[in-house]
Fold this protein.
Amino acid sequence: MDQVSNVFNGFTNIMDQNIRGVQLGCYSVALVGLTVAMRKVRPFSKFKAPSDIPNHFVKERRELTGLVKRIEPDGALLMVQHKPLVNIPLIPSGQLPVKITGVNVTGLGISWLQTVVVGSEVKFVPILKGRNLVECEVLLVQPSKDKQPRLVNVGERLVKVGFGFPATIEKPLVENRKFLSYYSRLQSAELYANKRKLGFKYYTLPIEKALYSLLNYLYSTFLHTIEQTVRIIPKLPTIYTA
């Protein structure tokens, strides 16, 4: 009987050790998986520079959220305070320079951005990282009557109202199918603006005509003044020499 009891106790000890080993292995695997997931998702990171954004965020077109603090006129950059998934107040924030990809913004467009977009929350999808900025498709979050946020594509809206126009694209964007779909919408917005004479050329054309008229007026006034001056200059007597 004692032998049976000893064998049973030994078996129990072995099982306890194995269970603890299995539990330790499961905890280790879970910890490694959590670490990998944290590095992939970056739930606490506040992006302050293009280099802070992981490359797989660009490849996967990961949507980010932030608050537009101001507009940098040189390049029409949106200075965005990025909001992570889990906001920890102790982690300092910065201003990420975001360029609206595929759009050349006019002076009127910069004024529109300063009036409408500054102080608002945006969602931005990184398309291309540069040294000093990150090109993004930007969506403005606007409240609606049904309490569901409405997303307005900022690039399309700028082009549609004539405050911007599609930029010339080069590699690697010309090979990006998802970007080309977005760029096609920009071109459609430009056609809409041109049909309603809201395009960029319809803003610059009146200015060119006004400048031409002003220069023509100044030139005519100058000629008239010269003619009047010549008339009032007394004729000098003729001097004969032997």
Q: What stands out?
A: The chain has two domains: 1-41, 50-200. The first helix runs from residue 2 to 41.
